[in-house]
Design goal:
The complex is a heterodimer of chains A (109) and B (114). Chain A is mostly beta strands. Chain A has strands at 5-7, 10-14, 19-24, 32-37, 44-49, 55-58, 61-65, 71-76, 85-92, 97-99, 103-108. Chain B is 0% helix and 48% strand. Classes of the chains: A mainly beta (109), B mainly beta (114).
Chain lengths: 109, 114
Amino acid sequence: TQLLEQSPQFLSIQEGENLTVYCNSSSVFSSLQWYRQEPGEGPVLLVTVVTGGEVKKLKRLTFQFGDARKDSSLHITAAQPGDTGLYLCAGGSNYKLTFGKGTLLTVNP
Amino acid sequence: GAGVSQSPRYKVAKRGQDVALRCDPISGHVSLFWYQQALGQGPEFLTYFQNEAQLDKSGLPSDRFFAERPEGSVSTLKIQRTQQEDSAVYLCASNRGPASGEQYFGPGTRLTVT
């Protein structure tokens, strides 16, 4: 079974601060996805990373896939209250996703 | 519809009751997935359909859980003789097919077993 560990589990910061959250595994993944989930809603895909060492940017969010394709990070610059949510990483086969437990981010105004 | 819809959004069941949770995927989506998300956890895979065929049910926790998608569109997840440990959010997702990558999730059904 491929396991994904996310850290930190909880993160509370002030608006304008930068932050990084991590997703680690002992297994190699062909790709990793990052989702954001807001209360009462399902997860929404932010990005898919496929190539080891790949860096993708989505506005203030920067995603990196480790060279060995076992880990990934999400960096948010100048966080805003609208970034509040549960950030989940997921990997697996082309249909069966394994999710981490997520990082619950709160950005205080 | 514009997205995946699920009903009911909230369900309270007494221990021992049977429940049925419905998922309406995005029109034309071939693949459909069910996940269980316990409080403070990430979603855990339950089962996968391609059209009406249930190709993987390895995540169903027990034989009390049963899923169907008889016409390859709407799906129902049924839980018989509910127990307290079944309390969770049940998420449904769909996509165009096995190589599609992104899964589109519904808002989930929050099941509380008392």
